[in-house]
């Protein structure tokens, strides 16, 4: 039984290892995973707040604005005319002369629910009216 210590070349040359040590890479990935698992729920916390009234400057009004009003009893009116919810799209086309790019001003009584307001806005969107403006009372501005 024999053993060969030299392969015939210079014994001072070391063989190059062509392996990558992935252990530090895996450690870094696991640490980042833990950090993101802890930080992600903090970024999506749902906090209930009372939104303030708007103090934005008044925008210029068009010559003949089209108002869609939702009354406290959930009836809908275009201008001063009460319209059934199913006929809202056709009545709005008559009021705007089928100009879908016209801005529609939506007024809702503060006693109606947010869901009722969204239902009317969805009907307007489905009818092709994408320019909607919500109308509210102007809040008194405070001097700083």
Task: Tell me about this structure.
The structure is a single chain. With 144 residues, the chain is α/β, with parallel strands linked by helices. 30% of the residues lie in helices and 14% in strands. The chain has three helices and five strands. A five-stranded mixed sheet has the order 3-2-1-4-5, covered by helices on one side. It starts with 22 loop residues before the first helix and ends in a 9-residue tail after the last strand.
Provide a compact summary of the structure:
The chain is an alpha/beta fold and 144 residues long. The protein is built from 3 helices and 5 strands, in the order αβββαβαβ.
Task: Describe how the helices and strands are arranged.
Elements: H1 23-43, E1 66-70, E2 76-78, E3 81-83, H2 88-96, E4 104-108, H3 114-126, E5 132-135
Parallel strand pairs: 1-4, 4-5
Antiparallel strand pairs: 1-2, 2-3
């Amino acid at each position: 039984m024999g053993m060969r210590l030299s392969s015939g070349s210079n014994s001072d040359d070391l063989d190059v290892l062509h392996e990558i040590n992935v252990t530090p890479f895996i450690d870094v990935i696991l640490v980042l995973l833990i950090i993101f698992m802890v930080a992600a729920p903090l970024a999506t916390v749902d906090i209930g707040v009372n939104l303030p009234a708007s103090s934005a400057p008044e925008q210029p009004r068009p010559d003949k604005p089209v108002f869609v009003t939702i009354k406290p009893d959930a009836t809908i009116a275009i201008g001063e005319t009460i319209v059934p919810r199913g006929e809202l799209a056709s009545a709005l086309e008559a009021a705007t002369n089928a100009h879908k790019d016209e801005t529609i001003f939506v007024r809702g009584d503060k006693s109606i629910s947010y869901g009722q307001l969204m239902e009317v806005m969805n009907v307007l969107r489905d009818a092709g009216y994408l320019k909607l403006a919500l109308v509210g009372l102007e809040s008194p501005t405070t001097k700083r």
